[in-house]
Amino acid sequence: MNLKTELETLADTVVTEWPEIACSSQFEDAIRFLYRSQLEFPPSWPQDQRDEFIASNAELETIRLAARLDDAIDSVIDGYTRQHGWPPHQEDAAEMIDAERRAVIFDLEFCLATLADEINKVSAQCLGRADTSMTGCSRAHR
């Protein structure tokens, strides 16, 4: 599945199931799935290193996104009220909040690009170092 389709699917799920999805592991699991399907790891990375990288970054991103998704209501209502002098109609507010939540999910595209750069940097730093080297890439290798 391509990135756009995966993000649209996740955005649809978040919009229809928020905040319930945040209270389960479903949201973090969806981000992990997205990372697994979209990030490319070098062959030199063992599966446990890939899993650890995905798990730690998905956990952090889940927390960050959950805060932004929760704040979407306040930011949309406050922004509209400041601009127009009165709060939006309830149905209009619901549509604007859904659009804001979709935008938050689509920010994962930038996160994926950042993680891909991080993978490349770590891989470049580790080139030529043996697993048993005292200058290995991680403490686990020492």
Give short descriptive properties of this protein.
142 residues, mainly alpha, elongated
Description:
- Helix 2 (26-38) crosses helix 3.
- It contains five helices and no strands.
- It is elongated.
- It has one domain (3-141).
- Helices cover 72% and strands 0% of the residues.
- The model has no long low-confidence stretch (mean pLDDT 91).
- The protein is mostly helical.
- The two termini are 38 Å apart.
Uncertain runs with pLDDT below 50, 5 residues or more?
none
Give the terminus-to-terminus CA distance. 38 Å
Residues in helices, as a percent range? over 70%
| Overall mean pLDDT | 91
Order of helices and strands: HHHHH
What's the β-strand tally?
Answer: 0
Molecular shape: elongated
Report the β-strand fraction as a percent range: under 5%
The largest pleated sheet is described as: none
Q: Compute the number of structural domains.
A: 1
So how many helices? Answer: 5
